[in-house]
């Protein structure tokens, strides 16, 4: 084979199954794009994302030289989207983390409290 793991190639969808799509790349090499490697998002039906004869960019993520099989990924070519369930809560958290206001007095008093607690009364 003239390809290596990590190569990004243009392939054509030649067949779609419930578990993924078969992709052919130059030199008549065929491999599997598993449903889990299509997107970072959940894909219920491969047909909702891909169609036969689609040309797609894929990354080679595994090569089985003995069986002459290649495993492709589209997912590996994109960054996952940050899933946020509660944008207001996230914004509030970011504001708190960016600001130390409110903790300055505690920071000033900590040495005094530590000294009083550990420092001195041997009754």
Can you name the CATH architecture of the largest domain? Beta Barrel
Overall helicity? 10-25%
- Please give the count of helices: 2
| Cα radius of gyration in angstroms | 27 Å
Broad structural category: alpha+beta
Distance between the termini: 82 Å
Strand arrangement in the largest pleated sheet: 1-2-3-5-4
Q: Which percent band covers the strand fraction?
A: 25-35%
Main β-sheet: number of strands, strand sense, barrel status?
Answer: 5 strands, mixed, barrel
Mean pLDDT: 85
Order of helices and strands: EEEEEHH
Strands, total number = 5
Number of domains: 2
Name the CATH superfamily assignment of the largest domain.
Answer: Nucleic acid-binding proteins
| Backbone shape | elongated
Query: Could you name the CATH topology of the largest domain?
Result: OB fold (Dihydrolipoamide Acetyltransferase, E2P)
State the CATH class of the largest domain.
Answer: Mainly Beta
* Uncertain ranges: none
